[in-house]
Amino acid sequence: DAGITQSPRYKITETGRQVTLMCHQTWSHSYMFWYRQDLGHGLRLIYYSAAADITDKGEVPDGYVVSRSKTENFPLTLESATRSQTSVYFCASRGSGGAYEQYFGPGTRLTVT
Amino acid sequence: TQLLEQSPQFLSIQEGENLTVYCNSSSVFSSLQWYRQEPGEGPVLLVTVVTGGEVKKLKRLTFQFGDARKDSSLHITAAQPGDTGLYLCAGAGYENTGNQFYFGTGTSLTVIP
User: Fold this and answer.
1) What pLDDT digit, counting tens, does each position of A16-49 carry?
2) Coil, strand or helix: which one is A5?
3) Which of A2-11, A69-78, B63-72, B87-96 has the lowest mean pLDDT?
4) B45 and A105 in contact (C-beta within 8 Å)?
5) Measured between CB atoms, which of B44, B45, B104 is closest to A42?
6) Are B103 and B32 in contact (CB under 8 A)?
7) B82: helix, coil or strand?
8) Cα A85 to chain center, whole Å?
9) Residue A109 burial (CB < 10 Å; 0-12/13-18/19+)?
10) Do A90 and B50 touch (CB under 8 A)?
């Protein structure tokens, strides 16, 4: 499907387990982003990537790892999940230049028990 | 650090009424975006404003960027039930090239038929 997709849409995991959230876009956008959305905090940037093999930290990167070996994929890994990482995670992408218009995926609801 | 404050947080109005949502900050932004998010979905971009004092209209929605580029407002005329959703503002700081957006906590709007 064209656009930006995330998988899984829902995930329940236990504290201490590793979990990977997937993000795939078909527009060949240069930039990709991971956000988490929590009540009272809005959307907060975790990591972003300007191109394949280029990643940088956002506002709340602790406990997360990202990689970007291909332009279209930007997986987010929680190496050892904690309850505080229970959240809704959104992936977004945008092209280079322009007015920075971001396009968001449908989100992954992650619950850490 | 929450750089953008939105008000009100919650708004419930009757169909046909007018409303204004505010997005305020002490920081200056190079551009500011407004998104609408529906339950279970990712945010969808409504508009981007880049010039101080700029006004943009999208059907019944009017967006304004403050002269000092620190604040913005969204005015909806004759609200419809289809306008129901979470409205988010997001600003791009001058210190980055559009790679980091700071989101407000959102305004949850309910339009009652």
Assistant:
1) 999 999 999 999 899 999 999 998 778 999 999 9
2) strand
3) B87-96
4) no
5) B104
6) no
7) helix
8) 13
9) middle
10) no
Nearest CA in chain B to A41: B105
CA atoms within 13 A on the CB side of A46: 26
Task: For residues B82 and B59, give the distance between their C-alpha atoms in angstroms, rounded to a whole number.
Answer: 13
Distances (CA, A) of A62 to A58, A85, B28: 10, 10, 27
Q: Encoding tokens for residue A107? A: 């989100």
- Contact residues of A toward B, CB < 8 A: 31, 35, 40-45, 48, 50, 56, 58-59, 90, 92, 94, 99-107
Q: Report CA B79 to chain centroid distance, whole Å.
A: 15
In tens, the pLDDT along A57-103 reads: 988 999 999 999 999 999 999 999 999 999 999 999 988 766 578 89
Work out whether the CA dihedral B37, B97, A29, A74 comes out positive or negative. negative
Which of A96, A100, A109 to mutate against chain B (most B CBs within 10 Å)?
A: A100
Query: d(Cα A72, Cα A75) in Å, to the nearest integer?
Result: 10
Distances (CA, A) of A42 to A25, A37, A85, A103, B98: 23, 5, 14, 17, 18
Mean pLDDT, range B55-65, rounded to an integer = 96
* pLDDT (0 to 100) of residue A98: 62
